[in-house]
Amino acid sequence: MPQSLSQIYLHIVFSTKNRTMYLQDEHLRAKTHAYLAGICKNLESPALIVGGVADHAHVLCRFSKNITVVAFLRELQPFQGCGSRDGFFPGCAAATLGCVMKPLRGKAGLFRQ
Q1: Superfamily for the 8-105 domain
Q2: How far apart are CA 16 and CA 14, in angstroms?
Q3: Whether pLDDT at 85 is above 70
Q4: Is the pLDDT of residue 90 over 50?
Q5: Of 36, 45, 47, the residue nearest 64 (C-alpha)
Q6: What secondary structure letter does DSSP report for 86?
Q7: Can you tell me the distance from the alpha carbon of 56 to that of 67, in angstroms, rounded to the nearest whole number?
């Protein structure tokens, strides 16, 4: 029986409320990145790279076939309770992962699993 195989990667950007520099403290930033990576892992969508700077964070993950995008983003909602996220933009579309990963590697405070 034929089957389709695909891999979908999501690049999600979290912006702090009013672009305030909530994540200036490197320890807090590292904990935030680890937290985001942990949520991705628990949702069977392993993070390839989590990074960012004082006013935003990036997550690049391999999206699970067992959850919808809406449900995945809803699971990340507890992050909003920290008072440091105003909104998110799930964006994805690059010819290769290298096109996405190269600019992200230049961001401060990368967390790799």
Answers
A1: Transposase IS200-like (3.30.70.1290)
A2: 7
A3: no
A4: no
A5: 45
A6: S
A7: 25
pLDDT digits (tens, 9 = 90+) for 12-62: 887 777 778 888 888 888 888 898 899 999 999 999 999 888 888 888 999
CB atoms within 10 A of CB 5: 5
Question: Alpha helices, DSSP H only, in 1-113?
Answer: 26-42, 69-75, 97-105
- pTM for this entry: 0.68
Tell me the domain boundaries of the chain.
Answer: 8-105
Enumerate residues 6+ apart whose C-beta is below 8 A from 6. none
Tell me which residue has tokens 């995945």. Answer: 72
Phi, psi of 103 (to 5 degrees): -65, -35
First-to-last CA distance in the chain? Answer: 35
Residue with tokens 């919808």, as numbered in its chain: 68
